[in-house]
Design the sequence.
């Protein structure tokens, strides 16, 4: 049975700690590599897809608060490992791309939203996409559970939204999915070893 109370206590610490580390990492590097290719330029900027991008948070919350304790712990371990790997890559190899200027967006609402998003998530923190990685960590952990089709559709939608909002590049999305698979695989391998030591 899921211990919801414990998770509600743990979640704020994880979120605050993650945000602090995110702020620390984003203040360190300056972009070294500007990725500009025909594939990413061909993907249109569609402002309203920011809502699909934001649905990531509901998707994660609905997953981690419904699974049993064993999977919850593996999610925390996988997401934490993914964050450490991603932020290490950002510090070593900061990649950037050209984002649309929010000032050029016609809608005042979307202009405000994208101004906020760009301030919170700087342009040099792109590869690999943690947005994509954590989304697919949830999918891979629950791969054999019912509702897989819906979860995959949501995962694909969230991944594509990172492209249509111009928050990420195709390379970032691929990197995020591979990172998710690796982190779920390695934590799955480590879990039995940890249990055997108890």
Sequence:
């Amino acid at each position: 049975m899921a211990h919801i109370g414990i998770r509600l206590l743990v979640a704020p610490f994880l979120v605050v700690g993650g945000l602090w580390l995110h702020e620390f990492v984003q203040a360190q590097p300056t972009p070294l590599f500007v990725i500009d290719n025909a594939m990413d330029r061909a993907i249109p900027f569609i402002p309203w897809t920011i809502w699909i991008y934001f649905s990531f948070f509901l998707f994660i919350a609905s997953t981690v608060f419904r699974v049993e304790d064993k999977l919850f712990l593996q999610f925390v371990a996988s997401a934490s490992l993914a964050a450490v790997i991603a932020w290490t890559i950002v510090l070593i190899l900061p990649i950037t791309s050209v984002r649309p200027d929010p000032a050029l967006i016609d809608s005042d609402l979307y202009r405000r939203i994208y101004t906020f998003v760009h301030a919170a998530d700087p342009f040099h923190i792109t590869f690999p996409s943690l947005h994509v990685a954590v989304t697919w960590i949830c999918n891979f952990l629950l791969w054999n559970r019912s509702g897989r089709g819906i979860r995959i559709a949501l995962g694909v939608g969230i991944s594509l939204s990172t492209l249509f909002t111009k928050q990420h590049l195709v390379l970032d999305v691929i990197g995020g999915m591979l990172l998710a698979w690796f982190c779920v695989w390695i934590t799955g391998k480590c879990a039995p070893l940890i249990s055997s030591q108890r």
User: Anything to note?
Assistant: The chain has a mean pLDDT of 83. The chain has one domain: 4-11+33-196.
